[in-house]
Amino acid sequence: METKKVWLVTGASKGLGLTLVLKLLANNYQVAATSRTVNALKEKVPDHLENFFPLEMDVTNSDNVKNAIDSVIARFGKIDIVVNNAGFSQIGTLEELTDEEVKNNFSVNVFGTLNVIRNVAKYLRQQRSGHIFNIASIGGYIGSFPGFGVYCSTKFAVAGFTEALSEEMRAFNVNTTLVYPGYFRTGFLSQGSVKTPATPIADYVAARQMEKAHLNEINGNQPNDPEKAAEVLITLSKHDNPPVHFFMGEDAYQYANLKIAAIQENMEKDKALATSTGF
């Protein structure tokens, strides 16, 4: 039965992940939800739900991810839909951020997602069905935000390997959807979620202004509703032929269209020179 599908949602203790988990449970889905601490999940989801399986999982540790996924299979017998939602934003210019700060953002956003894919793919491949949602960001399509270069680059990486993943898994009847959300009114930009540079450099005025705008003006005033985002993801999971690329939110569409138009304009302007390289 469609309503008995098993979902695995990472980064589920807050934000879009938590909203999705609560909506799935309200609709009688079986849900395995992961967070760095299981108590963070238990505190926010009603107790004694038979369909709810809270799990402590460190996405940066492949063995830990494998054990968690194996336990989901042991509990529910299968996994139908995977939502790679765990991630955070590291703000800071490329000069400001330390090697450790950059690697930490990549460890969670990129290698964490890869760890989940690597360990869940064999189950989906063997059962010849499934759907993987990789939650990127509109910042994974357009990266011209000063102070957000590293975060955007992690999401560009997710976009890149998701395109390959969709082709690799297609032969096994496993769908893949890369989601580019715009600004959603979650705690994503709140203190404790977003990280700022440990050693900011005052000269980067534009980056500081962009940082301040996100933390003080955009945070809490995002134009998109996470409840509706959760409904959209559930709707997409029911499609027979879901899209590989999915821009979510009017702002995401506006940013994507601006980049597409700019690239097309630049390509046309420089076409003669750019295509003059052939033998």
From TrEMBL:
A Pfam family for this UniProt protein? adh_short
Q: Which domain of life is it from?
A: Bacteria
UniProt GO MF annotations: oxidoreductase activity
Under InterPro entries, the record lists:
NAD(P)-bd_dom_sf, Sc_DH/Rdtase_CS, SDR_fam, SDR_oxidoreductase
Sorted keywords for this record are: Oxidoreductase
- Which family, according to the similarity comment? Belongs to the short-chain dehydrogenases/reductases (SDR) family.
Q: What is this protein called?
A: Short-chain dehydrogenase
